[in-house]
Amino acid sequence: MKIIQYLTELPENKEDDPGPKQSRTCKTKLKNQYGQLFNVESHSDKQLRHFKFLSVSFMSQLLSSQSFVKKIVECEETEKLQKLEQRLLEKVLHYINTVASSVEGNVDKPTAKFWRVLLNKSYDMLDKVNALLPTETFIPVIRGLMMNQLPSVRRKAMDLLNNKVQQRTRWQKSQILQLLELVPELIAIVQCKRKEEEEEQAINRQTALFSLKLLCKGFGTENPVPFVPVLKTAIDLISSEKEEKNVMGSALLCIAEVTCTLKAQAIPQLPRLMPALLKTLKNKKELVSNEIYLLSAVTALLKVAETLPHFLSPYLLDCLLQVVHLEKIVVEFGPSSQISLRVTSLKTILATRLAPRILLPAVTKCYSEVANTQKHCLRPLMNILKEHIVGMEKEHLISHQSELTAFFMKALDFRTEHAQDDLEEVGKTEAYIIDCLISMVMKLSEASFRPLFFKLFDWSKTESTLKDRLLTFHRIADCIADKLKGLFTLFAGHLVKSFAETLNQVNISKTDEAFFDSENSTEKSCLLLQFTMDCLHKLFLFDTQKFLSKERAETLMMPLVDQLENTLGGDEKFQERVTAHLIPCIAQFSVAMADDSLWKPLNYHILLKTRHTSPKVRFAALLALVEVAQKLRENYLVLLPESIPFLAELMEDECEEVEQQCQKTIQQLEVILGEPLQSYF
């Protein structure tokens, strides 16, 4: 202790030495006892630094030497020793403080490296003192240090405690009780409002909260009672308006740990905890500006939801609202970030740990609140509902089916309610709703699904003004056809006539009237055609039960073929629709017919389109012809004599592109049918 005291009194460097007269007084005692240990005047700056380094190294080595440790172990005056050890720790911490301030003061000077090395050596000395303390002594010593006047000493004492708690795995019962006695002391530091530097105080309060978190994690399960006041104190902190954000972040993490450990004993605190926690999450500006604070708030809500899911119902709507709002913030951090992973876990807990009777009404209310003003929130909300439906037991699904159906009927009106909004954005949101609906459809029996599907069909017909429901329904039908595959033909019989009517009504070669009464009518009509053709394509593709009877084929034939001359949306849209949607649909239509008495009229009607006035339509008809032949293979031979005269006409077409496409078509037919056709022309 005297060596440390002497080192503290030495000047930082030679220039700072006050000279022989002034320095004489402070060194008199030492001079009398030891003579002048180190004369600053007669030594260089480098020698002064060397002396300090050697002194600290000497003490560090001495404290860990075998002979010295043996004497400590054999010493019987434990009480006297404990007091000395506490004083030594205080001195070392005080010296570390002095060196740390020298490190800061010499950052830009050539001696910066020396001060950093000396600081590390001083910390090494602190570890050696710490290692000498038996656990029984360590705890009272730390307790004494936590009362020290210097904030830095109090903080280092808590750091030492934290390291000890984290490193050690086995504790005796008496030691645990001693450690738990520190809890009130730590709470006092957390609540402390001493008149000292705010920054120092904030860091100490954070360290104390971290200590409480570690103690709770280590010993709270078996000794929950001392930690109830910890939870109360942390709730007080997050309820305060003026609290420093980093302290609040630590308080939130402490709440997460303590709630997780206390379990049922935390329930009485929920009426204070949940509103304060949700209020924290509502303040988006502060959350966005401080990532650690955001992560702490999400972690606290996650742990509360994980530990006490059945007690969340009074706060569930607010929880859902905050979680779905977080999605927008979380996107910026990326999917693999800690914050994203925790928000995902939180959504999963809300989706899987709550009974349908509690969650479904909250989802419905949440939807009503965000549907019109915060559309970006609908995706996470639908994800939560989807995950809930996927995990639902069969009997729960049956008992809640009518409630879910009512919700979807309301949610599927999203497109109608946003008829004038950006089509792409509306489409994205609608996709989440339909995806969620499909998750329910896939769990229903045929008997349960049939009335739901017919209800949706009737729903799509009931809104006469905007017809946006029809667009939504055709999209739903397309998605269901994709999931149910061949099974969908059991329910799709009454769609045939309706789809045929739609194809005719949205064909500008047959009518001049706009199908939709809105500014973006053309874009909507193009989408409607796309969903209708895609759904029919899937019906034909998965038809193994002879769904496409002669009557149904005749109903659909002309509406489909006439789409070859429907130039709605301009050239680019027309070409994209024909190649990606219409031609695959017509080709699959020919396969599903499986009847040569129907192939002939289909082929003939396509051939008639090759005489259309527009070269684009003639070109499209040729593409359709090849695709049908590709599907029918050798069966197309019977249709060939009828096709030759039409192809012969196109060989001399006024449009060069059509003429070239005709030659290409003949070559493709030769490959498909395996016969030379040039002799026919």
Automatic annotation (TrEMBL):
It holds the Pfam family HEAT_HEATR1. The keyword Coiled coil applies. Its main location: nucleus. The keyword Acyltransferase does not apply. Keywords: Coiled coil, Nucleus, Ribonucleoprotein, Ribosome biogenesis, rRNA processing. Residues 394-547 form the BP28 C-terminal domain. InterPro entries: ARM-like, ARM-type_fold, BP28_C_dom, HEAT_Utp10/HEAT1, UTP10. GO terms for biological process: maturation of SSU-rRNA from tricistronic rRNA transcript (SSU-rRNA, 5.8S rRNA, LSU-rRNA); positive regulation of transcription by RNA polymerase I. Residues 648-675 form a coiled coil. One of its GO terms (cellular component) is small-subunit processome. It is found in: Nucleus, Nucleolus. GO terms for molecular function: snoRNA binding. Belongs to the HEATR1/UTP10 family. Involved in nucleolar processing of pre-18S ribosomal RNA. This is HEAT repeat-containing protein 1. It comes from Sula dactylatra (Masked booby). The gene is Heatr1.
